[in-house]
Amino acid sequence: MFMNIITLAAKWAIPVLLFVITVFALFRKVNVYESFIEGAQEGFATAVKTIPFLVAMFVAISVFRSSGAMALFVKLVSPVTELLSIPAEVLPLGIMRPLSGGGALGITAELIKTYGPDSFIGKLASTLQGSTDTTFFVLTLYFGSVGIIRYRYAVFSGLSADITGFIASVIVCNIVFR
Question: Which of 69, 90, 98, 138 is the one with CA 20 to 30 A from 38?
Fold first, then answer.
């Protein structure tokens, strides 16, 4: 019974929200259609402005992976991470996650396919995927598209949050799943 109510609420949440916003706008005498079209035009212009930043980010990620730099880095630090109960297999995910959500999702899917979703590595990869963010992607895309050029504190804050998420994921997964 309770799950049916949640399913029904989830199904109708967005249509009801759109209806409420439209009714509220009509009471305030806002031309909803014109406002929507104006917002869509601004959104399209912003999307076009972000394309160069996306291309640059994807090229950099591709060069990093294809050159073997990521594999070399993982090989160099894996003896230390193994001592800290961090499987070397998840290190590429930890490195890729701040760079690219799509790349990280691909690594996560590969780890789950290889080791299984119920394995420690599968659970750790899933937890890492949900506990960290695409810091450089966000900074490059969003800050670049609006012209913010001084964002060094944002880089520090974002990477600090990613490192904290990575460490917390490892600790929690080691406590819960081992």
Answer: 138
